[in-house]
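Bug #77: duplicate submission created two jobs. Keeping one. Sequence:
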Amino acid sequence: MSFVQASQEGWLDVRYAPRSISQDFATNTNVMGNQAKTIVGPLDRVKILFQASNPQFAKYTGSWFGVVTAMRDINRQSGIRGLFRGHSATLLRIFPYAAIKFLAYEQFRAVLIPSKQHETSLRRLLSGAFAGVTSVFFTYPLEVVRVRLAFETKEVGRSSLRGICAQIYHEQPPRVAHSGAVAGAVPAAPRSGLINFYRGFSSTLAGMLPYAGMSFLTHDTAGDWLRLPALAPYTLTENPKNPSAPPILRYWAELLAGGFAGLVSQTASYPFEVIRRRMQVGGAVGDGHRLRMAETARIVWAERGWRGFFVGLGIGYFKVVPMAAVSFYVYERGKVVLGV
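Kept job's structure:
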């Protein structure tokens, strides 16, 4: 049977079949994620310095020449290790993050889209958004540690991974005297502790809905377009593990769908990412008080206007688009190889 006939008869897509999650598949996805993160590690650090408006590097924002200059300065001051500042926390985070995200997506998708008749753009969006929120909830403390390590530029007395964790844990917002306050009264909100590892979590949730939601929605929608009868002869190939199974996307088509998903999701969520970065370094700059999402947005707007919400976006595209392409490719091929 030809690919066009297969598409017309409606058996091309097996995404509605019951799912079984393999530990081998999760491990394979995570190894890929760690390798990809290592390759773009230097760019990731520069992007964080730009987003968080580090005083030393704010002058470099706005051009690719500035990115190269910033990387050169970091290398001159701290060597190659400086370009990977905070990378240890990145590797610790990506392993559970990728596994939880893709596993959760399959589970939410199975509940929200049990059959093709139930599939809508909204259900695809919600499946991805819920998966993203689930994964980020469990890994967010490592994200805060990573950003704080990458933001730190001092050469003397640099914080270790353990040291930055202790520093974040013990940070306290400034005490503000209120008129009429009762002496010895206990503050309503905790002043230090684990809550400090969730700085900027509100903006993360707000940003994760368009990021993860649009990522999976765009990938699945692009996959549908590439499976249309007119394109099927060029974009589909035989399943190498099971020739009698529905055909799968060719490698370039799968990479194209994943890269396009990364482009759309990064653009849709980037302002929230900038706000999140500024909130995450709140304990290391200024008076140390916990910035709220609206307050942070006003600060960014006052400094740079609307462009401030997209500072470092070019680096984001350079990092996210190929990473998303490879991630979705390994994700889909992993399911084929493992028969899930």
